[in-house]
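User: Hey, my collaborator sent me this sequence without any context and asked if I could get a structure. I don't really work with proteins. Can you help?
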Amino acid sequence: MNEFELLYGYSSVVIAGILFFAIVLCSEAGFKVGCYVQARTDDEVKALTGSVQASILGLLALLLGFTFSMSMQRFDSRNMALIDETNAIGTAVLRVELLPDNLREEAKLLFLEYVELRVAIGQLDLTRQEARRSYDEKIFQTQNALWQLAVNATDIDPRPVTTGAFIKSLNDVIDTQGKRNALLQMHVPEAVLLLLFIVFVSSGGIMGYSSGLSGKRISVPLLLVSLLITLIVFIIIDLDRPKRGVIQVSQAPMVTLYDSLKP
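Assistant: No problem. I've predicted the 3D structure and written it out in structure-token form, which is a compact way to encode the shape of the chain:
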């Protein structure tokens, strides 16, 4: 997690709840202001206010689509990274059979330990940084042990079609692990989320103001719109928070691989 991110440390439920109340309060404030200036506002200004409201709601829809697309794309990338890493490990485990006989059992045990560590860290909240650093250190040590085993294998059998194939698959395992870790740190920029929140609150204010100018309160539609906006924001934030929210990347492929490696 980037230490400069302000929102990531807070629950998506808390952020969505605060946003909902902010929209409702701004809408109510806009309604009171609209009622106050209603008598001094002519029909032309009221029509222009309606045009401004439509423009802000259009901007809101554009930002919603853009931000949802960003968060969904990152979620899909994390899904694919998990599948790619699982496939890479599975291929490397199969190529253990190409190693010299005296190294195969050790390699299988190291891969079993490695996959167990990857399953464990895959279920760990990103905010638990100390625990994740501890797992990362163990994973690094296991990778080094596997690499040293590959080096020892080349001394016994340097042929590229046997030990060479195993080394290539081991490289892929390390590369996919690095790619997956990098994707975990990629989020929708907070500047985009803050802009989205500002537009949300402003849209609530302009809808309340427009309602006040008409002199008629439309509480139920405004509350419904505010609730729908909040739910969409919750989904966007939740998709953008790996291992924290309701929507999470399933660890089933890695768990299945681990179960298949057990003696």
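In plain terms: Helices lie at 12-37, 43-94, 101-122, 129-156, 163-184, 190-214, 219-239, 252-261. You can pass these tokens on to your collaborator as they are.
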